[in-house]
């Protein structure tokens, strides 16, 4: 059974750090205001404001900052500032023994999928949700779902069903994140474990032929074989070539799992759009989809500390 880090309460401290792209103290202000409105104390990591070309400090800076927050017993959650690229450069230097000794919530999406996938293998839940950078453009619902993920875990979603959905019911642990990152981790110690799991995927700014290549790579690696279900979030700003690929994003994904009997839900409101609703990765969910609606409900099953 997965370990559930303690839910937050008013007065707790949450750290904002860079694991990838740089993020300034000025950019952090909306996120600070949001956290303070929830009664939390914000600690800005030493990487906030650092500038190493695209990255929020050197690899050493980002490792040291993350490890420092893991080691600090007063920090109850670590909120990644933004994505982009860079988390994979530091994943093997992070002291995850600190996290297993004292679990705390790790929050983010996109490039932070590196952390989600790696930490899932340690048996600890994480939160796929908006980052500090996302706050100014995030919908109120997206922010509200992050609040519930952090403070009480009460999350349930009902959305109108897409006509391409594969209908049915499933139960299992939710895993996943950004498809490009999951694809890039295959063959590494951080590669995703999808056996008997429900897989969530989303992506941004990819060519359709590349999406097809990623899905076939997952298929050939057995990632899609033993799923209990699949949830497809935003496939945002997809591109085609001058000579069309011939399939849209949904059709490409559906084709890769056409021989599977598990349910598939498209258009779940989570990913790189403004309505990036929070998901507790590693938590058991109930997934139901029919021609009218799709329902995703999180169960309160995690082993609390």
From TrEMBL:
Active-site residues from the entry: 110 (nucleophile), 202 (charge relay system), 272 (charge relay system)
InterPro entries given in the database record: Carboxypeptidase_A_C_sf, Class_I_gatase-like, LdcA_N, Peptidase_S66_N, Peptidase_S66C, S66_fam
MF terms in GO: carboxypeptidase activity; serine-type peptidase activity
Domain LD-carboxypeptidase N-terminal per the UniProt entry, residue ranges: 14-129
LD-carboxypeptidase C-terminal domain mapped to chain residues: 171-286
GO biological process: proteolysis
Keywords for the protein's UniProt record, in alphabetical order: Carboxypeptidase, Hydrolase, Protease, Serine protease
Family: Belongs to the peptidase S66 family.
Name of the protein in question: Muramoyltetrapeptide carboxypeptidase
């Amino acid at each position: 059974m997965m370990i559930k880090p303690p839910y937050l309460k008013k007065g707790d401290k949450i750290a904002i750090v860079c694991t990838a792209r740089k993020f300034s103290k000025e950019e952090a202000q909306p996120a600070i205001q949001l956290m303070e409105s929830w009664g939390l104390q914000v600690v800005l990591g030493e990487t906030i404001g650092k500038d190493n070309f695209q990255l929020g400090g050197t690899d050493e800076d980002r490792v040291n900052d993350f490890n420092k927050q893991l080691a600090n017993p007063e920090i109850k959650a670590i909120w990644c500032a933004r994505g982009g690229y860079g988390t994979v450069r530091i994943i093997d230097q992070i002291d995850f023994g600190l996290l297993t000794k004292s679990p705390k919530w790790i929050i983010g999406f996109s490039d932070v999928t590196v952390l989600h996938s790696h930490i899932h293998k340690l048996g600890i839940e994480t939160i796929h949700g908006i980052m500090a950078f996302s706050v100014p453009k995030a919908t109120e619902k997206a922010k509200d779902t992050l609040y519930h993920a952090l403070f009480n875990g009460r999350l349930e979603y009902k959305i109108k069903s897409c006509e391409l959905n594969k209908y049915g019911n499933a139960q299992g642990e939710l895993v996943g994140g950004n498809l490009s990152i999951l694809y890039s981790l295959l063959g590494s110690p951080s590669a995703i474990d999808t056996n008997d799991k429900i897989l969530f995927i989303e992506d941004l700014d990819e060519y359709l032929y590349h999406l097809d290549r990623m899905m076939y790579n997952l298929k050939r690696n057995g990632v899609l074989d033993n799923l209990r279900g699949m949830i497809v979030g935003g496939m945002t700003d997809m591109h085609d070539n001058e000579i069309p690929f011939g399939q849209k994003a949904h059709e490409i994904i559906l084709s890769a799992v056409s021989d599977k009997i598990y349910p598939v839900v498209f258009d779940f409101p989570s990913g790189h759009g403004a309505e990036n609703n929070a998901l507790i990765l590693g938590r058991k969910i109930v997934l139901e989809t029919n021609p009218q609606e799709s329902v995703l409900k999180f169960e309160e099953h995690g082993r609390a500390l």
